[in-house]
Please model this.
Amino acid sequence: MSCFPPFSVRIKRFALLSFLLSGAAFPCFGYAAVSGETPPVSDQVDFLAEQINYDEKNQIIVASGNVEITQEGRVVKAKTVTYHLLNEAVEAEGDVVMMEPSGDVHFADRVELKDRFKNGYVKKLRSVLADGSRFTAEEGHRENAERIVMTDATYTPCEECKADPEKAPLWQFRAGKVTHDTTDHTITYNDATFEVGGFPIAYTPYFSHPDGTIHQKSGVLPPTFSSNSQMGLSVNTRYYWAISPSEDATLGARLFTKETPMAFGEYRKRYDDAELELDTSATSSSRKDTVGGETITKGDEFRGHLFGKGLWDIDEKWRAGFRTQLTTDDQYLRQYDLSSESVLDNEVYAERFSGRNYLVGRAMAFQDVRVSDRSADQPNILPDIRSNMLGQPNDLLGGRWSLDLSALGLTRKGNGQDVLRGSATAGWERRDVASFGSVNTLTAALRGDAYKAFNYDEDMSGDSSSDVSTRFYPYVQDVLSYPLVRDFDAFQSVIEPTIALTAASNVDNNSNIPNEDSQDVQIDALNIFSPNRFPGLDRVEDRVHATFGGRAGVYAPDGSEAEIFLGQSFRLNNSDNPFPEGSGLSGQESDFVGQIMADYQRKFGLDYRFQLGADSFESERHELSAYAGWEKISLSATYLYARALEGTDLDQSREQLYQDVTYDFVENWRMRESSRYDFGDLSGFRNVLFGVDYFAQCATISTTAKRSFAFEETGADATEVMVRIGLKNLGEFGTGD
Model:
């Protein structure tokens, strides 16, 4: 078959997929004319143009007028495109646009491509990457579809100013040579200048960073700097190691002008059904400590910490995990600003979920890092086994049954008190709603406990015996409430008076059963209707008591609401009252407890909880939390007051106020301020913070000044100034940790 002579055809939006290049129309230059086979889809080319001229002799197609060529997911658009069939080279001119399968888009005045668009040359390049980052270059070379080497180039992840596209971006790199490696996902600069607002502020002969298309990449992280009155100036250097898509590590060191260096590391690993995290540090340095009430300085010694946690989803019902928090001394974590925890928890556990049933077994150990002598009181727990089972509704006598089982072992170092405890509680509960609207909840339970104490502590035990002690504790409770509801045009109101009567056996709480978990008892609006107001299991509330309370509230469709609650409890026989002073339950009539809560469209809120003396209405305890938020400013405050009680550990009144303010004073700028003030005998600020933040699409700047007031031996007494600068795709530079 002879070929057609050169021709010119005008085409209106005509696609030539397999028509020109498969040989169906012109077999003398199509794929089939060469191989005799039908071209695979990946080798085919789409042409779309208003006019095409074909030079049969030289095997050249010249397309003009809104030209679009597609091959292997890559698209080239231009005013004029010349396609050389013999070597599959393309020359495009006039508003050239190249779109990659990755989402990157390149603009140019002239482009030359060959080898299936994988190699080529570009003039006046302007690129927008998939993440919004932008390149410009006088010229560039594309190499094997893997990298673009540009000269006289710029790079910025900042968006273009819509009002003034020619305006310099917030920041950019300008370099004599820039290489974008799409396989390694890196951007490398040679002879580079860092510009802010178009003004050069830093120079580097070499620089490299990820291109923003991947979530992890091995390399040196930007250093951070800090200034601390206790530690001096410091620099934090880190290396990030992307071991695999599901595993990474960070290694580094912190250098100080007033202390010896500290090495640290972090490791993370995620499995198909498990995860693991480890965090550690080590140094050799001095510290201040308190011995016999005097502050002393200890010489250089090994110091460090190890934190870790793991979780394993064994199957649909079982999972196991661990958490570890260890440090060498009480001050280390606070001194090096690693953690502010007072007591460190360590545990391993396994738990099972099955419908309404739950089982957990764990072992726990604690490290008290408060600067005091109380660390000896912290026990280790082995074992701690609990099982909770719950029946179906209306399964037994119109109610549902429950069964709770537990076993606990506490051990202390040296001659501290050790305890073994077993407990079982069988319960039943039925809830009835009468036709006239009253709600009655009847509960009955029988609990049995067995204890054995070793090396008894008289503060925790009432008897010196170390024999096995048993206790049976049956109780029944009936709670009756009558909610009255009325609908208005703009809201709904509810008034609900409630009365409860609880009867339990007479139990001697001063027996040789130790008190480990029921020491911190406090009546409040949440537990006043509980049958046993003691937390934990070691102490129980015996005999008969009645509780009265009422709640009133209004509720709006937009989520706004307001509630008030007031309640009091009364013991019918106050002999042998088990509650301590300060609990609000030590008298025959309990203190009054209440709560006032309000929320308006999640913009303004108030939560006030109080405890008033039963006879004098004197303030015993107040907790107030409030917040308010407008378009540019938000406020929050928390106030706590607890009255001193003679003869107890609370020998001084406690009164503190914490407040926090944020103010967006202009676009992209925010001011922060917070403080905690103690009104006690040693009144004064405990900490103060002030900060200013700047937020932009491609950069953030945060400046913070913080002052903590504490005893020097705690390791927390310091003044710190921090400045953080975050640049998109480059990471975060700054001062502080």
